[in-house]
Each structure stands twice: as structure tokens, then as C-alpha cells.
């Protein structure tokens, strides 16, 4: 774990779970797996708090437990999983694009809560959708299963099933069912398992009902002031039908989707819209026919591809063949050809082993690794260019090509005076090139800015609250005007600037994370080859 | 002796070329203060991507941050003991669900029921005792506690601790409103006039 990674993990944990959880989490990341008491001792925290922190971390799939030899249970943090928290908004947005609002909320609830039962998450999402739909009765809503003003559980259930079928959500590992004949004493902690076939199996639930609205003024017979009484969201004492079957978001599947998206858009940029649609179709077909862990997909005949093209695309078979040839001939080797039957067999390869296997067949295949490589290189080059100038970019490109260059050779090839070349090399080396460091900086800067303006932010929040409550009780325009003037014009200016800056910093975090994703995917793919 | 060669003349104790400066070259300026926290860069960064999608993801991110803070998983750091307990603190408590991890086992539910029964019994006994005692201020506190625990036992489950606390607050207020006047003042109606008269008789001279 690099210092930059640890720093970023610390910031993420602190923002999402508070200081105590952050302390425990970072400690585990730094030291590796440790038992409970050692954690408490080393961090100087009470056992109670350590337990609470561990519960939160385990609930969110950030820490796992393991029974060590001699029956000691140790806890281990997954640093890379902590870093994924940066990507949550992207996962949620992806779910929205694929399965609309219902899908979006389902994934959001799963990410916010770590693990949930299907019945719990369906109910929660139905409630949320109902709240947002209040008073929005329209035919459009009816077609989505909204009866009157309440969201039907069935509709939400259906979306959940679709998410499970396409592997975007998966079951959490469970305690294995022990046989009664097991003689030994029970282990200090159960080892959780999940079999491949069970992972996406949706339990047979008959979830009948509708989402409830939060406001219960018509139900509250006693007439007690609602403001003081917090509403119970879980009134039911009924047994949960799928108790023990917990679900979590399957981040790897989202990553696969991002990769596919990146390739499709790269093809679109390099060639044209039609080519990218063809590639997208090929990827979609291989999604269904093979699981992501298979070494290579079934070969796709151009006939099959032709049949699977999206409905709107009216290209003839010959044109499709021409496109396929073009794609296969492209030096970037996104698509490969592996035979001539069925109008030409095209293979999508996610793994290089298959490449060597099929090499005697002169394969044309979609080499994901290569694709990633090109994308990574391109992105790295542009980063260097923007950050250090075009001369540095020249050097960088050279180094990438030649792998090793001596200092003198760099000067010769790049045609830059010796001193400047040295200067730039040193700069590039010493500047921490890792994007993770950038993100950590961004977060720190944002927190810094927010703290600086804390007083102002609190003031504006109070004023807003006052205005809102006055409006609710029907205040006059003049009074509202007066309240608004409590914030002076320069303060308003400051707030505007602050808001703009914070938004910019947030947007930077998101986009730098996209670069991180690309580079990490490439590294992972490279490691798999070896 | 050989070591005195450079006496009086500035000489490096290490090979300057190893660091990268050739001999006789102008060395960089001496640094007098730490580098700025957020230094200016030579090259301005690339403009950010903008678009509907990006805006939505940004809004999502900010919303998520807010939501996370309100979830029960966000463990607040316990405050240090303050010398003076501020009155306003009681009314600034933010409602936050207590999260109990793991499935609720039947065993846990049963024990709760038991405690609630004993609670109610105790509570009733206490009420009787205190009515007899008739000490105003004390009964206030006792009433608050009783109300609190009564509410707690009514709910029964462990996830409603904060719930009870809120209701306790509510009931406290109610109690206080009702008890502007000391309870004992009107409690023993028979003796009311007689006692005070006696006292007054004694007091006047």
C-alpha cells in the first residue's frame, strides 16, 4: 500500500463513516490482518468502539474476517475496496442509464447499506419512489406500475430480478449449513461461502404491497404533534421471508461495463458511430454467452452479429462485413477474425492465453488487453502533455516506445538541450505521478475550503431554513426580503465562489477517478497475462 | 596535513557531480521558507468535461456525501465531558437511528419482553410510593424517568432507544408544563388549609 493510497483511504473513510471508523480502518490497512484485542490495544480505542467500527466496515464489505491458526479470528481490510467508494456515484448513474430510476435507487440503497435482503431493499425503494411521486399522477407513471400515488412492489421486484440476472447485484457469502453429525466444537467464527450457481439466484418471494408515503397525517389519530414524534419506518413485526439472504452490488460487473463503454467510445472516436455500434453489439452478445471469468468467448459469426444489431440499424450484410474487415484490419486490433464459416467468425478475447491458443488459426480477436493498453497510453500521454508541456510529452512517448533509454539518448532523440532534458526528467520523476495522490489532494482542498467558510455556510443554511419555515407559514414578501438581506452582498459573492470551487473540485475527483480506473484496469489485465 | 588543503577555501565534503551539478556551476538559490501549500503551476489544467451526465453524477456525489453523514453507520466521535452541562444541548440532539448489526434472533426478542414486563411492574410500584411521599421536585425527575422507561418498555425493541429518548424529551416538556406548580401543593387537599394556617399562626409575632 502506497502512502498515497493510505491517505486517500483515510479521507474516504472519514468522510463516509466518521473518525472512529477511519482510525480502525486505516490501522488495519497499514498493519494487515489483526485480531480484535490487538486492534484495540494498538489504536488505544475501547473494545466497544472497535467492535462498532468493525461492524460498520464488515457491513460495507471493507473488512473481512478470517479464522487464523490456533482459533484466533483476525480482521483484514481491503484497501482497494475502500478506494471504490470514490466510484459510487458512477455506479449509481450507470444503473440509472440501464434500468432507470428504480434501478438507480436499488443500487444506491445497496451501496449505502452494504448488504441488504431483497425484501428490505425493495420495500425501501418503493417507499422512496412513492415519496418522489407524490402528486405526480400521470399516465406515464401508471405504465411504470404506479397505482394512483404509490409504487407497486412488483415493479421494483422486477427491476431487482433484472439486476440479478445481469449480475449487477449478487448474493453475499453465507454461513454454510453444518450437518448435525459434526463432532468438533463450533469454530470461533464462521467461514462464509457462496457457490457460483447460488450467487445470482433470486429467492422466491411474493412481495405484495405498495410503497408508503412518509406523511401520515391521516393515520395519526391521537393528534400528537408530528414534529416531535419520529415516524417508525419499520412497523412490521412479521418474520422476514428471506432473512439471511443478503445482497450486495457487484462492482466487478460495473467495471466490465465501464471497460466496454470505454472501448465503444474509443472506436466511435477513431472510426465512426456505426463501427462503435457493431463493437457494442459484439460485446453485448458475449455478455450473455459467457461469464466474465471465462478465458475467451464463443466465436461470433458475422451472420449472428447481423441478426443481433439493434433494430434501428439498417445496414446490409455486405456493409456489415466491410465494417468487420475494417475493424479487424485496424492496427489497434480491437476486433479479430478467427475463421471463415458462417460468413466469417469473429472472436472476442478477454485473455491473452486464448491468443496464443488460436495463434495458429491466425486469429482476429477483440483483445481487451491491447485495447486497454492503447487507451491507457493515450490518457497517460495527454496527462503528461497537459501537465508538463509538449516537450515532456515527447520524452514520455519516447520512453514508452523504447522502454529503456539512457539519459544521453533521451537528449539526442528529443532534441532538447541537455540541461532542460535533465530538468524535465527529474520533474517527472519527483512529481508524484500517481493520480491517487491527486485525488487525495482534491479531497483535502475541498475540506479545507469548506472549513474556511464554515461560518458562512452555517449562516446561509440558517437563513434558508428560516425562509423556508416562514414561507410555509405564509409570510409576506417584505419579511422574506428582510431575512434574505441578512446575508450581505460580499458574503453572497463569497458563497457563490465557494460553491463553484467545491463543485469544480468534486467534478475533478470524479474525472480523475475515471483515469485511475483506466490505468488500474490495464495493470490488472497485464498482471493476468503473467 | 593533506586534509588542510582546502582550509580557508569552500570545499564540498562529497562528490558534487553525483548530485547532478557540474563543478563551478551556479547553485540554485537558498530556500528560506517552506514551499506554498497550493503552489501555482506552469501549465494550466485541461478544462473539465461538462454535460448532463457529468452534472448528474456530480449532484449524486454531493447528495451521497450528505446522506452518508445521516446514516447510522456514521459513528459520531463521543464528545469529551464538559465542565458545564449546557441546557440547550438537550434540545439540539439530532435524531439518528441506532443500528444493530446482524439478524434479530428470537432469543433477543424474548428477553426484551421479559424486561419490559418487570419494568412496568416496577414502574407502577414506584408511582404508588411517590404519590405517598408527595415531594414535588423529586417526583418531577421520577416522573420523567418513569415516562422514559415506560415508553421504552412499550416499544420493547432495542432499535428504539433513540426513539425513546426523543419521546422522553417530549414527555419531559409535557411534564414540566403540567408541573408548574409543585405537586404537593394540591395533593393532600384535606390538610391544605389547616397546615398552612398552623404554620402561619406560629410565624406571626
How far the N terminus sits from the C terminus of chain A, by CA atoms, comes to 21 Å
Biggest sheet features of chain A: 4 strands, mixed
C-alpha geometry of chain A: globular
Number of helices of chain B: 7
Rg over alpha carbons of chain A: 28 Å
Number of strands of chain A: 12
Q: In this structure, how is the largest beta sheet of chain B organized? A: none
Structural class estimated from helices and strands of chain B: mainly alpha
Secondary structural class of chain A? alpha+beta
The beta-strand count of chain B equals 0
Q: What is the CA-based Rg of chain B, rounded?
A: 37 Å
Q: Indicate the low-confidence ranges of chain A by residue numbers.
A: 216-237, 348-366, 425-433
Measured distance between first and last alpha carbons of chain B: 113 Å
Alpha plus pi helix count of chain A: 22
What is the arithmetic mean of pLDDT of chain B?
61
Highest-level CATH class of one domain in chain A: Mainly Alpha
Provide the residue-averaged pLDDT of chain A: 74
Q: Under CATH, the topology of one domain in chain A is which?
A: Arc Repressor Mutant, subunit A
Describe the structure.
The complex is a heterodimer of chains A (530) and B (205). Chain A is of the alpha+beta class. Among the domains of chain A are: 3-77, Orthogonal Bundle (Arc Repressor Mutant, subunit A), CATH 1.10.10; 84-135 and 150-176 and 189-211 and 242-249, Arc Repressor Mutant, subunit A (Orthogonal Bundle); 252-348, Winged helix-like DNA-binding domain superfamily/Winged helix DNA-binding domain (Arc Repressor Mutant, subunit A, Orthogonal Bundle), CATH 1.10.10.10; 382-439, Winged helix-like DNA-binding domain superfamily/Winged helix DNA-binding domain (Arc Repressor Mutant, subunit A, Orthogonal Bundle). Chain A contains 22 helices and 12 strands. Chain A has helices at 3-17, 19-31, 36-43, 47-59, 79-83, 88-113, 118-132, 139-143, 153-165, 251-270, 273-289, 302-308, 317-329, 352-357, 368-388, 390-402, 407-414, 418-430, 435-452, 454-472, 477-484, 489-529; strands spanning 34-35, 63-67, 73-77, 116-117, 146-147, 150-151, 169-171, 246-249, 300-301, 336-339, 345-349, 365-367. In chain A, the strands form 4 sheets. In chain A, strands 9, 10, 11 and 12 form a 4-stranded mixed β-sheet that branches. A 3-stranded antiparallel β-sheet of chain A has the order 1-3-2. In chain A, α1 packs antiparallel against α2 (19-31), α10 (251-270) packs antiparallel against α11 and α10 (251-270) packs across α15 (368-388). Chain A is globular, with a radius of gyration of 28 Å. In chain A, 30% of the residues are buried. The model of chain A is unreliable at 216-237, 348-366 and 425-433 (pLDDT under 50). Chain B starts with 15 loop residues before the first helix and ends with a helix. Chain B has helices at residues 16-19, 52-70, 106-133, 136-155, 161-178, 183-187, 192-203. By secondary structure, chain B is mostly helical. Chain B is built from 7 helices and no strands. Chain B has a domain at 49-75. The model of chain B is unreliable at 104-118, 135-177 and 192-198 (pLDDT under 50). Classes of the chains: A alpha+beta (530), B mainly alpha (205).
Amino acid at each position: 500500500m502506497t502512502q498515497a493510497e493510505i491517505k486517500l483511504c483515510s479521507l474516504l473513510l472519514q468522510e463516509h463513516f466518521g473518525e472512529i471508523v477511519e482510525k480502525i480502518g486505516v490501522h488495519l490497512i497499514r498493519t494487515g490482518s489483526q485480531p480484535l484485542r490487538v486492534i484495540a490495544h494498538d489504536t488505544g480505542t475501547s473494545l466497544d468502539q472497535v467492535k462498532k467500527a468493525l461492524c460498520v466496515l464488515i457491513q460495507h464489505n471493507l473488512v473481512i474476517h478470517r479464522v487464523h491458526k490456533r482459533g484466533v479470528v483476525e480482521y483484514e481490510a481491503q484497501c482497494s475496496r475502500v478506494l471504490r467508494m470514490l466510484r459510487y456515484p458512477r455506479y449509481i448513474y450507470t444503473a440509472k442509464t440501464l434500468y432507470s430510476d428504480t434501478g438507480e435507487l436499488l443500487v444506491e440503497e445497496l451501496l449505502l447499506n452494504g448488504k441488504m435482503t431483497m425484501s428490505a431493499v425493495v420495500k425501501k425503494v418503493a417507499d422512496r419512489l412513492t415519496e418522489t411521486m407524490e402528486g405526480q399522477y400521470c399516465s406515464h407513471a401508471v405504465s411504470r406500475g404506479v397505482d394512483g400515488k404509490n409504487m407497486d412492489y412488483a415493479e421494483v421486484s422486477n427491476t431487482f430480478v433484472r439486476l440479478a440476472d445481469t449480475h449487477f447485484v449478487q448474493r453475499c457469502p453465507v454461513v454454510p449449513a453444518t450437518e448435525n453429525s459434526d463432532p468438533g466444537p463450533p469454530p470461533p467464527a464462521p467461514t462464509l461461502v457462496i457457490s457460483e450457481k447460488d450467487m445470482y439466484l433470486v429467492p422466491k418471494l411474493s412481495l405484495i404491497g405498495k410503497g408508503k408515503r412518509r406523511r401520515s397525517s391521516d393515520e395519526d389519530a391521537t393528534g400528537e404533534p408530528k414534529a416531535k414524534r419520529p415516524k417508525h419506518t419499520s412497523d412490521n413485526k412479521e418474520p422476514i421471508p428471506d432473512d439471511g439472504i443478503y445482497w450486495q452490488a457487484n462492482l466487478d460487473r460495473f467495471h466490465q461495463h465501464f471497460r466496454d463503454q470505454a472501448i465503444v467510445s474509443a472506436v466511435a472516436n477513431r472510426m465512426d458511430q456505426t463501427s462503435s455500434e457493431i463493437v457494442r453489439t459484439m460485446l453485448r452478445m458475449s455478455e450473455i454467452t459467457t461469464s466474465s471469468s471465462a478465458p475467451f468467448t464463443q466465436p461470433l459469426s458475422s451472420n449472428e452479429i447481423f441478426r443481433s444489431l439493434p433494430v434501428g440499424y439498417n445496414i446490409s450484410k455486405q456493409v456489415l462485413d466491410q465494417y468487420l474487415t475494417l475493424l479487424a484490419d485496424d492496427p489497434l486490433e480491437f476486433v479479430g477474425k478467427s475463421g471463415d464459416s458462417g460468413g466469417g467468425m469473429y472472436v472476442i478475447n478477454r485473455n491473452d492465453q486464448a491468443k496464443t491458443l488460436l495463434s495458429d488459426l491466425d486469429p482476429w480477436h477483440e483483445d481487451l488487453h491491447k485495447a486497454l493498453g492503447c487507451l491507457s497510453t493515450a490518457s497517460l500521454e495527454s496527462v503528461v502533455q497537459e501537465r508538463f508541456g509538449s516537450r515532456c510529452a515527447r520524452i514520455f512517448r519516447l520512453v514508452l516506445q523504447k522502454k529503456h533509454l539512457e539519459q544521453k539518448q533521451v537528449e539526442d532523440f528529443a532534441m532538447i538541450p541537455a540541461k532542460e532534458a535533465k530538468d524535465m526528467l527529474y520533474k517527472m520523476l519527483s512529481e508524484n505521478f500517481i493520480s491517487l495522490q491527486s485525488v487525495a489532494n482534491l479531497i483535502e482542498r475541498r475540506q479545507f475550503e469548506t472549513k474556511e467558510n464554515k461560518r458562512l455556510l452555517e449562516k446561509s443554511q440558517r437563513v434558508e431554513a428560516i425562509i423556508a419555515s416562514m414561507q410555509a407559514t405564509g409570510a409576506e414578501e417584505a419579511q422574506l426580503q428582510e431575512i434574505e438581506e441578512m446575508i450581505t452582498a460580499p458574503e453572497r459573492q463569497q458563497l457563490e465562489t465557494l460553491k463553484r470551487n467545491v463543485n469544480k473540485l468534486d467534478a475533478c475527483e470524479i474525472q480523475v477517478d475515471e483515469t485511475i480506473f483506466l490505468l488500474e484496469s490495464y495493470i490488472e489485465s497485464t498482471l493476468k497475462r503473467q | 596535513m593533506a586534509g588542510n588543503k582546502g582550509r580557508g577555501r569552500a570545499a564540498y565534503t562529497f562528490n558534487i557531480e553525483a548530485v547532478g551539478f557540474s563543478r563551478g556551476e551556479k547553485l540554485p538559490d537558498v530556500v528560506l521558507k517552506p514551499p506554498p501549500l497550493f503552489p501555482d503551476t506552469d501549465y494550466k489544467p485541461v478544462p473539465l468535461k461538462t454535460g448532463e451526465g457529468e452534472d448528474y453524477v456530480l449532484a449524486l456525489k454531493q447528495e451521497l456525501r450528505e446522506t452518508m453523514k445521516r446514516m447510522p453507520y456514521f459513528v459520531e466521535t463521543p464528545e469529551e465531558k464538559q465542565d458545564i452541562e449546557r441546557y440547550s444541548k438537550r434540545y439540539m440532539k439530532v435524531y439518528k437511528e441506532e443500528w444493530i448489526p446482524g439478524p434479530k434472533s428470537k432469543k433477543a426478542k424474548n428477553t426484551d419482553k421479559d424486561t419490559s414486563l418487570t419494568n412496568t411492574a416496577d414502574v407502577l410500584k414506584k408511582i404508588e410510593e411517590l404519590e405517598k411521599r408527595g415531594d414535588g421536585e423529586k417526583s418531577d425527575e421520577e416522573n420523567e424517568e418513569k415516562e422514559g422507561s415506560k415508553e421504552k418498555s412499550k416499544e420493547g425493541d432495542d432499535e428504539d432507544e433513540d426513539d425513546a429518548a426523543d419521546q422522553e424529551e417530549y414527555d419531559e416538556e409535557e411534564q414540566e408544563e403540567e408541573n408548574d406548580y409543585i405537586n404537593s401543593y394540591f395533593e393532600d387537599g384535606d390538610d391544605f388549609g389547616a397546615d398552612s394556617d398552623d404554620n402561619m399562626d406560629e410565624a406571626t409575632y
